[in-house]
């Protein structure tokens, strides 16, 4: 059965991913394409239709992998994640990953399950990733055959579609772009956390383009692990996780200028310039330096 395959036959390359931390409401901004994805997947599983592949692309942190896990959970089937590296931490090239996928199809093709091929950019674009198949024509033929004959619905996940070979794109049943949600959706997510966040923090994170649903989900999971009575509240832990994540990437969560009056009123600033104009100028020229003089 599938369980035996997971634990015995493919322990090196394939693992069933963890439960999703996002719900369908996190993808409402994508519109009807989500319902098309759900219907297509359910039909493929029920009819055992072959050759069903979905290309999912979008910026990092937009929830692409979470979408695959959520889909598998709704369908009540395992999700096989074709790993990008070996247990020793060595990167697997495109040919190795494709070989793993084909082995998985051969062993589990008769089962109800989904497959996740994450970080598939190299696999669909770079001939150099196929050191075991020297000729590009052979590479394309092998991948096209894999796409056309897959017995399990497969989700191919990438950060972009720009460099994907059009010959491969034409063979996908559905191409789905996962965009970051609008600010209003992020703000709603921040307001529905199991713990209350300060209003300025909500507006800061909702207005930061680098704060994604995936980051919020991870931060919330970490925050809820805080023990009762801890000196650090879940809300503060949530803020620490988000801030450290952003600072590690060299990003600062910008404050929403409309929220400036909640914590500081510039009308009480005795200066020769308009602080709001200065703020707008700094946004246009983020490397500017200021010399502030006064007592």
How do the strands and helices of this protein lay out in sequence?
Blueprint: H1 2-9, E1 14-16, H2 33-47, E2 53-57, H3 64-75, E3 79-82, H4 94-108, E4 114-117, H5 121-125, H6 136-149, E5 154-158, H7 166-169, E6 174-177, H8 183-191, H9 199-206, H10 213-223, H11 234-248, H12 260-263, H13 275-284
Parallel strand pairs: 2-5, 2-6, 3-4, 4-5
Antiparallel strand pairs: 1-3
Helix pairs in contact: 8-9, 10-11
Please provide a brief summary of the model.
With 295 residues, the protein is of the alpha/beta class. It is built from 13 helices and six strands. The protein is elongated, with a radius of gyration of 23 Å.
Write a concise keyword list for the protein shown above.
alpha/beta, 6-stranded mixed sheet, 6 strands, disordered N terminus
Architecture overview:
By secondary structure, the protein is an alpha/beta fold. The protein is about 45% helix and about 10% strand. It contains 13 helices and six strands. The protein has helices spanning about 1-10, 35-45, 65-75, 95-110, 120-125, 135-150, 165-170, 185-190, 200-205, 215-225, 235-250, 260-265, 275-285, and strands at about 15, 55, 80, 115, 155-160, 175. It has a six-stranded mixed β-sheet, sandwiched between helices. Helix 4 (about 95-110) links the parallel strand 3 and strand 4 (about 115). It is elongated. The N and C termini lie far apart (about 75 Å). Residues about 1-10 and about 255-260 have low confidence and may be disordered.
